[in-house]
């Protein structure tokens, strides 16, 4: 659950984007005055069309790009001068980005080795991360011997294996087909709830944003146009990105949140409810 203790970091939220701007060419701003506060444990989604600057925001958070103006503050500390490896942030991209010459287990061990963890700790953590994404039997395979969905689960495990407090996911499911995408949405949400890790998730898919997020920042043309819970986003759509034809989705998303326990299967009759033993969720279609 999102933190309610706003004073934990001297009054600062877990992550604060403070009037962040970015220009690649020194003339036009790709990100224009980006302001966003994120609570610890929150699942926040940047939802916006292609080219709106979503990846640029994530790259600045990760430290691979630098703001032209403004500052990003993590746990009360400005991080613009901090290199990526010192930010302790897990990353998942659309194209998996696994090392092809390494086995799955070696891919997962890598972030721990660069952090100089003892070998025995590495083995334990790699095993735990593989089990978390249900790939316990696949440690010895190479990425090319896995399906796309399995490769993306390895990428998720690799982002989480060093137990980061913050994970960034940039359209991680974009390359997967619809069924697999929906299954992975559930898995990622489930992992988020289990670990309590803070997630900044990027997608251009409205239903994905609605089913996964605590809050959605609708991002367009370099600015946040609307910041709201999925329920609020749908009941009072303030931007053209949330057409009223999708408002019916909210009933489903709302209902899916209230369904928990082992007997939910029988309560989910509509085709767009997806039920697993512990919870129900909704594809929103
Ligand atoms: P999104 O992730 O929402 O699709 P991006 O952040 O990738 O958007 O891109 C926003 C804009 O910035 C686009 O016009 C894109 O062409 C431009 N852009 C992204 N990365 C670079 C870069 N490294 N150099 C120059 N322009 C870039
Ligand atoms: Mg992008």
Would you kindly provide a brief summary of this structure?
Helix content is 31%, strand content 22%. By secondary structure, the protein is of the alpha/beta class.
Descriptive notes:
By secondary structure, the protein is an alpha/beta fold. It is 31% helix and 22% strand. The protein folds into 2 domains: 237 residues, Rossmann fold (3-Layer(aba) Sandwich); 36 residues, no CATH class. The protein has 8 helices and 12 strands. A hairpin with a 2-residue loop joins strand 4 and strand 5. The protein is globular, with a radius of gyration of 19 Å. The structure holds adenosine-5'-diphosphate and magnesium ion. Magnesium ion binds next to helix 1.
Question: Topology, pairings included?
Answer:
Elements: E1 15-22, E2 31-38, E3 43-47, H1 54-62, E4 69-74, E5 77-78, E6 89-93, H2 104-113, H3 119-132, H4 148-160, E7 166-170, H5 178-195, E8 198-203, H6 206-212, E9 215-220, E10 223-228, H7 230-235, H8 248-258, E11 273-275, E12 280-282
The CATH topology of the largest domain is Rossmann fold
Count of DSSP-assigned helices: 8
Radius of gyration: 19 Å
What general outline do the C-alpha atoms trace? globular
Largest sheet: 6 strands, mixed
Mind telling me which CATH architecture of the largest domain this is?
A: 3-Layer(aba) Sandwich
Bound small molecules, deduplicated: adenosine-5'-diphosphate, magnesium ion
> Could you name the ranges where pLDDT drops below 50 across 5 or more consecutive residues?
1-6, 244-273, 275-280
The portion of residues assigned to helices is 25-40%
Distance between the termini: 26 Å
What is the assigned CATH homologous superfamily of the largest domain?
P-loop containing nucleotide triphosphate hydrolases
Strand order of the largest sheet: 6-7-8-3-9-10
Query: What is the ordering of alpha helices and beta strands?
Result: EEEHEEEHHHEHEHEEHHEE
């Amino acid at each position: 659950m999102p933190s309610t203790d706003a004073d934990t970091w001297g009054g600062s939220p877990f992550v604060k984007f403070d009037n962040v701007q970015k220009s690649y060419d020194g003339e036009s701003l790709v990100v224009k005055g980006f302001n966003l506060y994120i609570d610890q444990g929150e699942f926040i989604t940047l939802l916006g069309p292609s080219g709106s600057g979503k990846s640029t925001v994530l790259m600045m958070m990760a430290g691979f790009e630098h703001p032209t103006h403004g500052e990003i503050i993590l746990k009360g500390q400005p991080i613009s001068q901090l290199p990526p490896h010192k930010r302790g942030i897990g990353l998942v991209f659309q194209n998996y980005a696994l090392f092809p010459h390494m086995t799955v287990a070696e891919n997962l061990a890598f972030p721990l080795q660069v952090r100089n963890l003892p070998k025995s700790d590495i083995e334990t953590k790699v095993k735990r991360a593989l089990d978390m994404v249900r790939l316990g039997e696949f440690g010895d395979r190479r990425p090319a011997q896995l399906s796309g969905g399995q490769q993306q689960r390895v990428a998720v495990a690799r982002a989480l294996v060093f137990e980061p407090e913050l994970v960034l996911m940039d359209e991680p499911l974009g390359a997967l087909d619809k069924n697999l995408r929906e299954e992975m949405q559930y898995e990622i949400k489930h992992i988020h709830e289990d670990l309590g890790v803070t997630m900044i998730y990027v997608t251009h898919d409205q239903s994905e944003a609605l089913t996964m997020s605590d809050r959605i920042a609708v991002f367009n043309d370099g600015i946040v146009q609307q910041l709201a819970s999925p329920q609020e986003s749908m009941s009072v759509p303030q931007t053209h990105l949330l057409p009223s034809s999708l408002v019916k989705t909210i009933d489903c998303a709302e209902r899916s949140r209230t369904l928990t326990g082992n007997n939910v299967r029988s309560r989910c009759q509509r085709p767009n409810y997806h039920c697993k033993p512990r919870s129900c969720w909704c594809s929103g279609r």
